[in-house]
Amino acid sequence: MLDDEKAIRAEIVEFLNEEGYTLFEADRPSVAFTMLEEVKIDVLILDLQLPEMDGLSVLKRVKDDYPGMEVIMITGHGDMDAVIQAMRLGAMEFFTKPFRLLDMKVAIQRSRRFVALSSQLKEANLGYALLSKELQESVGHQIIGVSPAIKRVVDLMQRVAKSDTTSVLITGESGTGKELVARGIHFLSNRKKNLFCAVNCSAIPETLFESEFFGHKKGAFTGAQDDKPGWFEIASGGTLFLDEVVEMQPQMQAKLLRVLEDKKIQRIGSHLQIDVDVRIVAATNKNIAQMTEDNRFRSDLFYRLNSFIINLPPLRERREDIPILFDYYLRFFCNKFNKNIPDVDPQVYKALGQYDFPGNIRELRNMVERAIILSDGNKIRTRDFSLKEIVVDELPVDGEEVLDLEELEKRTIIKALEKTGYKKVEAALLLNITRQALDRRLEKYNLYY
Ligand SMILES: Nc1ncnc2c1ncn2[C@@H]1O[C@H](COP(=O)(O)OP(=O)(O)OP(=O)(O)O)[C@@H](O)[C@H]1O
Ligand SMILES: [Mg+2]
Concatenated DSSP letters for 140-201? Predict the structure, then answer.
């Protein structure tokens, strides 16, 4: 906190200390800047009237030298010009003396949330991408997200990739990214030079199961015209992805378990033991634990697989990822179909925020693809999505008297956006604030444009 008035400092410091915050005090800019070299500060409470240099110059320097820091300004009465200037320079909040300490606390909480969010974004290279570029190329897609849930998934993925014989079980509803994660594990591991084989267990007829997995010798049964390797041999050195693993017949489950234990197989009709070295990554969208309990899945195999489980939460339980995934796939498909990236009607984000996505990310992806193909203009609207479930709330109507400062600010921003066709740069100009300051306010009011 930088303020030359000792009494005000003391009051704020005491109050915020009691709230559990750590505060550093400075009575003039030179002291504050020396401090900033020593300690990392999230939020600066800054007085406008200071000795040595004025608060706006301090603000400017802070924004230049410490871009991650948020600033709360304290101004005297009637300093409107200064407030506008400070807004342009990127101050987050303003307080006019005298103010309520409780309001200051709320402002600090808000600023800190914003600081945490921005640093999270910085951490994720490529904006919201959670994989490195090389990995993206191998996997075919980025893993996109900001939610703690998806970050945890990526963290688990990276950990288990390192122990490259551990079996992994990936659970989650359809379309949540199980295969994407399985590929990620493979390409992050030492096995990446060898094959990633994805086998859908529900697609193999029961009679062919054994020969598909173990291979066969020529003449082992009618139709076995040649020697043929099975999946275990083909994937040896690499990763075998068993999709919809609960569809595997109990007999095959027992055989799979044997391979995991012995690391050896025999082709059908052959006595030759062949060493195989595969990592199994299994996936299911069923409740496999319940199925095991009901004796519909072998418990010994289940225990073997469940030593490392990665559960992918449904999209509706990590809604903060929705607008980000939407933007990602918007760009992806525009690129693919050689179209210009359209403006998105803000109602679209609103509608997406209210939709449950039973088909999860696959559904979102297909929805965006369809909308891009169908849209002919340069704007995407809710009607480009054939979703009856999507209900749209109306924006607040004009005309009624509003005396809440924040509500007024919010409405003014919405108006400016509407006037400029939702072009943020133009809206910021109209509002006489910087683009960054506008972004901050959009964030503050949860407006996703
Ligand atoms: N976090 C993510 N970021 C970007 N794209 C994702 C993400 N998760 C999933 N996807 C995409 O969503 C689609 C569905 O993912 P995937 O095929 O891995 O789902 P699944 O869980 O295997 O589904 P199913 O159970 O139906 O087989 C894919 O196109 C995938 O690239
Ligand atoms: Mg799948």
Answer: SS--B--SHHHHHHHHHHHHHHHSTT--EEEEESTTSSHHHHHHHHHHHSGGGGS-EEEEEG
